[in-house]
Amino acid sequence: MFGKQRCYLCGGKLENGRCTACGLDNAKNAQKKYRLNESSRTQAVKISDRQAKETAAAKVEKSAGTAEKMSGKTVVKAEDFLKKEKNTAAKMQKAVRRAAAEKQPADVRAKRYIGWITAVILIIMAGVPLVKELFDLSDQETQDVLYDMEDQDYVYDEYQFVTRELSESGEIYDALLEKGEYCVGINLPEGSYTVELADGAGTLNVDDPENSIYLYQYLGNNEDYNEMTVLEDVRLYEGAVVSISGAVGLNFHSENAQVQAMSAETNPLTESVTLEAEQIYTAGEDFPEGIYDIRGSDWVTVEYSVYLGEIYEEDDLNYWWQNIWFEEGQDAYRNAVLPAGTEITADGDGVTLVPSPIIGSQDYDAYYDRYR
Description:
Layout lengths: L13 E2 L2 E2 L6 H4 L10 H6 L3 H16 L13 H24 L3 H30 L5 H12 L19 E7 L2 E4 L7 E10 L1 E7 L4 E7 L10 E7 L4 E5 L2 E10 L7 E2 L6 E3 L5 E2 L7 E7 L4 E7 L11 E7 L6 E7 L4 E4 L4 E5 L2 E2 L13
Antiparallel strand pairs: 1-2, 3-10, 4-9, 5-8, 5-10, 6-7, 6-9, 11-20, 12-19, 13-18, 14-17, 14-19, 15-16, 15-18
Helix pairs in contact: 3-4, 3-6, 4-5
């Protein structure tokens, strides 16, 4: 219903198919927003912060040539705005998960969908001021750029800004990965992968700022939502972070894996740490900073925040927020990076922090530089 009344680019109102906020002809572009490896439900739910940056700000700059074409006017950086939206969405997700955890298991999936839809609506509403600040619609030159975008039959390609090709040769590599964060070159080798759903349902997210690759895909077996079970040609470059969430297991298969280029070190931490429920613990004070597998029981929620620096005037936005929900059958979140100062809390029966077997570096704070 919402898609017929709002611009799919910025969320603005439509008049005769054209957006009143950014000027985009939605009727002309209605069939141009298909994205590689995304189900129809994912397209409606997922408005990725960095995909929005690539398709809006980066695309316009590429079409216009340089930022100077904005006539020297002050423009709010898209990535700054979207960082705020990502933090807002995380807080909303935290509230939805906490409410769902208090219900019976049968209610959890329905509540989760409601939370996602609510987040999308708020992000769309918040996106209208962003587009108005990025593009002064009284500036004819900017209008021309927007119309140029319409004429280019643009289809999003996750790999359009990549400048280095993956090696065609390598080793065969297979791994079953569950909920957690995995660094390419440390936890799994660089290569082109086929990712196949093994069990459950959840999301795969590839975050690779160096190569401008930002992939987000929900995988599941629900035919009513046209959920996908297999992704082909998922390109993982060294330095990228693969995040998996949900009660899901994913099989990763590569035939050109650069196993010989992997580098890792044994985790210097050896002692597990028990976190009691409803208590706030600080890494570096209450337990050693480092990389841990977080282990918990069904329906437990873990929340932690990492300080990113003085970026925004509103202090709450200067933190990266992570929310982990242990669904039935999922008892661990792999490779959580907790630098000094990180505040973490859990509900339910509490959780245990178990040192992950390997790490890439002891500079734990640098792991979050991609959010700064």
